[in-house]
Amino acid sequence: MRDLFYSTLLNYTNDIDYINNCYSYIINQYSSRFYHNIDHLIFMFKELTQSSILPVNRDALILSIFYHDVIYKSTQKNNEYQSALILEKHLAKTDFKHIELCKNQINATKNHSTSLIDSDTNLLIDIDLAILGHKKDVYQLYTENVRKEYKIYPKFIYNPARKKAMQHFLEQDRIFKTEEFYNLYESIARDNITREINNL
Question: Could you write out the three-class secondary structure of the chain?
Fold first, then answer.
């Protein structure tokens, strides 16, 4: 993962010290969480690697993945927006020309809405949500770790909010935007989500 970040940013800056600082910041931000952590990044890059879908702008997508949860506070509702601002702050000091594209991709992970203009946004959303369509034990661990991130909230607050958030996915025509991820994960994800809601 480190090599991927460095090889991507080296396309836009030769300042190794600056790349070091950016990467150290990212790792530090993801290191103190139960779910939105480094393992989540590794998981997403694995999903991307295994997919047959070729991104239109691979570098932009890679950077969006690295930064999409760089800010994640359970008490805040604008984490995606704040994460996009960090990406902008970091990449503004390089020759990277697609900052707005990345910001839009990151902000799209808030509501997981289908993009009609950028297929890479849909791919980002799908690899972010792919955990929903994995095996029952993997999904169970995911829900347990998310709950730990929201441990400051008592059950009578967390459970209804979580139920509402997950019901939102079931109400969508399709959770996964790309055909590949839809075929792989849609049915299992709906079963997992339904089971979780029934247990809340």
Answer: CHHHHHHHHCCCCCCHHHHHHHHHHHHHHHCCCCCCCHHHHHHHHHHHHHCCCCCCCHHHHHHHHHHCCCCCCCCCCCHHHHHHHHHHHHHCCCCCCCHHHHHHHHHHCCCCCCCCCCHHHHHHHHHHHHHHHCCHHHHHHHHHHHHHHCCCCCHHHHHHHHHHHHHHHHHCCCCCCCHHHHHHHHHHHHHHHHHHHHHC
CA torsion, ordered 65, 69, 70, 72, to nearest 10 deg: 180
* Contact by Cβ (8 Å): 102, 91: yes
Q: 174-188 pLDDT, tens per residue? A: 999 999 999 999 999
Distance, C-alpha 34 to centroid of its chain: 14
Please report the pLDDT score of residue 42 as a whole number.
98
Average pLDDT over residues 9-19: 98
**At 45, which amino acid appears?**
F
Chain centroid to CA 87: how far?
14
pLDDT tens per residue across span 155-170 = 999 999 999 999 999 9
pLDDT band per the 50, 70, 90 thresholds, residue 29? very high
